[in-house]
Amino acid sequence: MVKDSVPAGTDPLLAVRVRDLEKSYGSFRAVDGIDFDIRRGEICALLGPNGAGKTTTVEIMEGYRKRDGGVVEVLGFDPAHQRTLLKRHIGIVLQSTGVEPYLKVHETLRMYAVLYPHPRPVDELIDLVGLTAKRNARVIELSGGQQRRLDMAIALVGDPELLFLDEPTTGFDPAARHEAWEIVRHLATLGKTVVLTTHFMDEAQYLADQVIVMASGKVVEEGPPSTLGSRDRAKVCVRYRLPAGTVPPEGLGGQPGPDGFIEVTVDDAVADVFRLTKWAIEEQVDLDGFEVKRPTLEDVYLSLTSSASTEAAGLTSPMESP
Length: 322
Ligand code: ATP
Hints:
Helix content is 30%, strand content 24%. It is built from nine helices and twelve strands. It has helices spanning 54-62, 83-87, 105-113, 122-128, 144-156, 174-189, 201-207, 269-283, 297-312, and strands at residues 14-25, 28-39, 43-47, 69-74, 90-93, 162-166, 193-197, 210-215, 218-223, 236-241, 262-266, 288-293. The strands form three sheets. The chain has a six-stranded mixed beta sheet, with helices on both faces. β1 (14-25) and β2 (28-39) form a beta hairpin. The longest helix is centred in the middle third of the chain and has 16 residues, at 174-189. The protein is globular and about 75 Å long. It binds adenosine-5'-triphosphate (ATP). Adenosine-5'-triphosphate (ATP) binds at residues 25, 30, 48, 50-56.
């Protein structure tokens, strides 16, 4: 039962508005009262461990799954009640699409294009996803990465305003991943909104304007990847290895780990790094493997999701600061 209906006065700057969304499977609460907004023209990455509730949330936004409660507005439509209208404005790239293997690339896209009132020109789409050289190839002759590009082109045939991408680069080689990222970025420059799920932190870091981290059916953190979990304000760690018997400056040393590296957290990154490197130069000491580190998106993600699952399991654990 839908508890609430879409309120009047939809914010035109928002592509998605979700409030107090709930979904249970039997007695299991897969989505447990979540709120978030996605602005138009933004790339938003939904992150979270297996079973966090991402797919359920995405399928509710797409209109493929009914919610139990809360408000969901996608491009101003309620996907539960206006799915047919919404479908004209969204594109969906699933992890595997069943495409006729013996059709050629351009034939496949033409076949989909007739389904839409205002399709994008087929050759323009082929260019957009970088399949120009494969225009006349049969689907069966495409590599995995090329098939995913075709999936993306299919999702773009109807010129959607909002694109849902489900783990868009799973199984790609590194070069193909970077190419796919460029396509997604290009879509954002065309003003499209992109909602993607991913398990790759580098993908979220590279692509997303906003990251939403889910765990155990809840949103545990959201924000731009660079500031998620206040990681931009987290203390800096300096890491280096010294020749045996060398004593570092006061406050900048420590017990080396098993790999021989000293890791020391510093309060004033610029001044402390200067003090250490000045000392090393003056004393002609080799700071082997010298590195200055802040928590990565992955560090923050792991800390957020491990504390969320610990809480969900009924254990008390103070959330570690990143
Ligand atoms: P993954 O990263 O593995 O794709 P996810 O974050 O997308 O995970 P969901 O697929 O939304 O997670 O699943 C959330 C929870 O709901 C899981 O515990 C899952 O087992 C359960 N679930 C999902 N679909 C159903 C269903 N149709 N019937 C019963 N339980 C389901």
